Amino acid sequence: MVAHLVRLKLALLRNGLRRSPWQVVGMVFGLLYGLGIAALVVSAMVAVSLQDVALQRTVTVMLGSLLVAGWWFVPLLAFGVDATLDPERFATFAIPRSSLVVGLSIAALLGVMGVLTTIVALSTGLAWWKHPLAMLVGLVGAVLGLGVAVVGGRAVVAAAAPLVARRRARELTAALAVLAVASIGPVLSGITSVRLDRDTFAGVVDVLVWTPFGAPWGAAGDVAQGHPLLALARLAIAVATLALALVVWDRAISRSLVSPPRREAAGARAGLGPFSRLPATPLGAVTARCLVYWVRDPRYAMAVAIVPIIPVLLWVVGRGEGILLFAGPFAAFVCGWGVSSDVSYDGSAFWTHVSAGVRGRVDRLGRVLASATLSAPIVLAITVVTAAVTGHVADLPALLGATLGVLGAAYGGASIMSALVVQPVQQPGENPFATRQGASMSAMLSQMVGSFAVMAATLPVVVPAWVAVATSSALLGWIALAVGAVVCGACVVVGVRVGGRLLDQRAPVLLQRVIAFA
Q1: What are phi and psi of 167, to 5 degrees?
Q2: Cα distances (Å, whole numbers) of residue 222 to 58, 120, 176, 332, 374
Q3: C-beta of residue 72 within 8 angstroms of C-beta of residue 147
Q4: How far apart are alpha carbons 214 and 61 in whole angstroms?
Q5: Between vectors from CA 238 to CA 55 and to CA 70, what angle results, nearest 5°?
Q6: What is the C-alpha separation between 52 and 60, in angstroms, rounded?
Q7: What residues of the chain score a pLDDT lower than 70?
Q8: Which of 290, 420, 481, 516 could form a disulfide with 370 if both were Cys (CB 3.0 to 4.6 A apart)?
Q9: Distance between CA atoms of 102 and 151, rounded to whole angstroms?
Q10: Would you say the C-alpha torsion 309, 313, 316, 322 has a positive or negative sign?
Q11: How far apart, in whole angstroms, are the C-alpha atoms of residue 400 and residue 388?
Q12: Does pTM surpass 0.85?
């Protein structure tokens, strides 16, 4: 049965590559990129193997700890877990849980990330080649560390599944993920301001080797330094962690096979919400429906929640006032271009628009109005606040013009793009930060082309606005504001008309594609 599960995983990978030539291209690029990183790590391990034992121990333990932490926690927040062999899919088959656990563990390594992790893990053991006994222990520790990473990661995700199934928990997790991403810059900035030396990292390693993250990788260093009993203690910690992870995963699989966790649906609320406040017209219905999504769907809510963090990120990256002035236009682009995924996020619910015969122009305008109702005040507030903070209140007309122009151009471009291309996205109730399998290179290229087209459309307002700020010209600033308002209106009108006409022609095709991605 274990061999059968492995063959099944290989068949799924092979069939996935047959779906589209772009899938193969993306796979090749991902593999080459991963192999490049693996080559750098292996080269670093070769260089480290020529250094003293203390440095070897520090580097190998920290690298191994990062591998384990990545497998444990990244799937919860960022990329999701490979669901090609979801244990719940075997609920109707009488497969022994022990065979299922072993088979799924091995299958988890049959992918780009699994292969690269294996290469990196084994390289930490081979780095001790100058000390044969330490190298042998290092390879044993690497295998145990690999097991702790893979099995422990699956156990953590499986144990958290009942909690993640709750809607509020998913929203909280997504919000924490946003905060985590936003804090990367300040944390790195704080780290770079602290004096770090070899002794600092050695002190961190002294703690990690007593944890499940670093214990498997620290045994080799103990043998090389002449402490075999400490090495046995590290390996014992790794074995105990692996055993505990197996028990947790086994029980989680048992629970999921008997009673799979059901995702909690959004609770019913009193009243009709936006539907009771907007006109009972096709445009009002589309706008109200999209407003409900923007407020209650975590996939949309996280897109809005991250916008206020943009000025903080720009300030950390730029370390100055100049780049902070671009926070308003940048936030406008993020908000406006977010509409390009609207049809993809609709999924099978898009059939309501198709079956009701909603005109494409009405669909496009309703989606823009819903997004602008929430996003426009935030974007304009960011523009005003950043101008005040940086002491450029006199340049506010130019900045507002640039923001309006970018916002309108983004809405117009997104209205056209979403009528041409749909892409695999997270389904309702899934992790807002998950990456759906099957994301094609064509979708990525279309997003890039559309983004560049929007940037080109904003040049007539961005250039005079930049010149107005650079020269402190009040007249040119007011001209930029007027041009920005014209560009905003023109781009929205063109985008709604062209996108609506395309949607009238392609709605059945788009519906077929989004259903296939669901």
Answers
A1: -60, -45
A2: 11, 20, 38, 55, 58
A3: no
A4: 5
A5: 70
A6: 12
A7: 1-2, 4-6, 8-10, 12-31, 76-103, 111-112, 160-199, 255-271, 298, 301-302, 305, 313, 315-322, 425-444, 517-518
A8: 290
A9: 9
A10: negative
A11: 13
A12: no
Structure tokens at 415: 């209205």
Residue 121: alpha-carbon gap to chain centroid: 25
Residue 492 CB partners (closer than 8 Å, separation 6+)? 368, 408, 411, 412, 415
What letter represents residue 334's amino acid? V
pLDDT (0 to 100) of residue 236: 93
Instruction: Copy the structure tokens of residue 433.
Output: 């930060």
Question: Among residues 324, 263, 266, 326, which one has the least CA distance to residue 300?
Answer: 266
Mapping DSSP onto H, E and C, the string for 480-496 reads HHHHHHHHHHHHHHHHH
Query: What CA–CA distance (Å, rounded) separates 392 from 342?
Result: 36
pLDDT computed for residue 324 by the predictor: 79
Length of the chain: 518
Question: Over the stretch 47-106, which tens digit does the pLDDT of each residue have?
Answer: 888 888 888 888 888 888 888 888 887 776 544 444 555 565 665 666 666 666 666 777
8 A C-beta contact, residue 160 and residue 254: no
Backbone dihedral angles phi then psi of residue 306, each to the nearest 5 degrees: -80, -15
31-38: long-range contacts (C-beta < 8 A, 24 or more apart)? 31/112, 34/112, 34/113, 34/115, 34/116, 35/116, 37/116, 38/116, 38/119, 38/120
Specify the pLDDT at position 398.
92
Inter-residue contact 434 to 174 (CB < 8 Å): no
Q: Report helix, strand and coil shares of the chain as percent, to nearest 5.
A: 80, 0, 20
Task: Say if residues 45 and 124 touch (Cβ distance below 8 Å).
Answer: yes
